[in-house]
Specification:
Layout lengths: L1 H9 L2 E2 L5 E2 L13 H48 L3 E9 L2 E10 L4 E2 L6 H13 L10 E4 L2 E5 H7 L1 H5 L17
Helix pairs in contact: 2-3, 2-4
């Protein structure tokens, strides 16, 4: 078998469509799989895969954060439909369970009647239950303190405006996906 492969590389046969054809997997005599070559390739591939994994995790975190912001904005929008003077939503976790909507405050800090209707509250509650309130703290207009989440309605709704108007034209490129293996 070795002689036939070496022979094919050293003396390529003519192709029916014209010209010599050499097997590409044996066209480079220095590409033989020695333990050193395998180890070097594995180290290079490990670094490449680590960069890709980091990039993909960053993308996943960004999308998750956008989903949290949109859920808070949807909750805020729904409350504004019922209470145009609402300023703050407060979600709270009590006894290990998320209160769907604990309080709504107006601009003067007065309590408004809170009615949980719609899927928006379920989305925020599910995120709170899975991630705890701290995951929301990075959203502009959201304060997380222990098991309580305060959502500034105007800031959160304004903050997601660009997410609702963007139409991505292409997939983003990243250096981690450029494959340069020596």
């Amino acid at each position: 078998m070795q002689n036939m492969t070496t022979s094919a590389v050293l003396h390529p046969q003519d192709s029916p469509i014209g010209g010599p054809v050499a097997p590409s997997f044996r066209s480079d005599p220095h590409a033989s799989p020695t333990p050193q070559n395998i180890a070097a390739r594995a180290a290079t591939e490990a670094l490449l895969l680590a960069r890709r994994r980091t990039f993909l995790q960053d993308q996943l975190d960004m999308v998750s954060q956008q989903q949290r912001a949109l859920a808070c904005a949807a909750a805020s929008h729904h409350v504004l439909e019922r209470h145009p003077d609402a300023a703050v939503l407060i979600f709270a976790v009590k006894d290990g369970r998320v209160n769907r909507l604990a309080n709504v405050l107006d601009g003067a800090g007065r309590y408004l009647p809170a009615h949980r209707t719609g899927e928006w509250a379920d989305a925020v509650a599910a995120e709170l239950h899975q991630e705890s309130a701290g995951a929301f703290a990075a959203i502009e207009g959201v304060e997380a303190a222990g098991t309580t989440l305060r959502v500034n309605i105007l800031t959160v709704v304004t903050g997601v405006g660009h997410l609702l108007s963007e139409q991505p034209d292409h997939q983003p490129r990243h250096a981690a996906f450029d494959r340069t293996v020596a």
